[in-house]
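Recall the central idea of this unit: under ordinary conditions, the amino acid sequence of a chain determines the structure it adopts. In this exercise we apply that idea directly, starting from the sequence alone.
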Amino acid sequence: MRRITLCLAPLLLLLSACVTPAPARVPAGPYVASGTLHLATLLPPPPAAGSPEERAELDAMLLIQQRRTPAEIGRARADANRVVWRFADALGNPPAFTAERLPLTAAFFQRLTREIDADSAGPKGVFARPRPFRAEPRLTPVVTRAVSWSYPSGHSTWAHAIAIVLADMVPERRAQIFARADEYGRNRIVAGVHYPSDVEAGKLCGTVIAADLLASPRFRVDESAAAAELRQALGPPSPAQARH
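Accordingly, the structure predicted from this sequence is:
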């Protein structure tokens, strides 16, 4: 028996060396090469500092600040956190829509966030627009006063890119998802840290980024796997939802 074991040992070692590890599900590298979109060339310039247009935006923000409710402040503060789980209400608040229950979906959207950030950082430096509370001292932000430039809004960019992807995965909730993205952007105005034009520019950037992602075969592989996990957790759409 000992001789058989000794004879088998080299064979087992040889076989183990020949076993090819399972390939990673997602190839290395980004879905889309960062810096290829040139988002700054797609955006109109923001209103000039001291212009009537800027003044109109600041006055609108002061009015929003005057009228914002504790509930709106709470939502704006919560939306400072850029995680896909903030879209839970757009999906009907399903109990399974959590990072713990959906690890593949969580990793997928974390990766998307990194890629969206890489694409959206450039335009801010190009336009170098100061935050609105720098121009209007009566504005009192209810979230951390960001030190980055204001135009376009990174949160609005992120929210609309994420919304387009999430709506592609859960199309029967498309209207609710896009409405939630709009609220996400508006909450940056409510919070006192972005001009309305920042938010609109972010919506355009997010749309362009999402379109680029959806055209990537590498992205499609990941999206399909995450969508399968998400769909299993959410269950099939109702007949009424499927018709829409």
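The radius of gyration is 23 Å.
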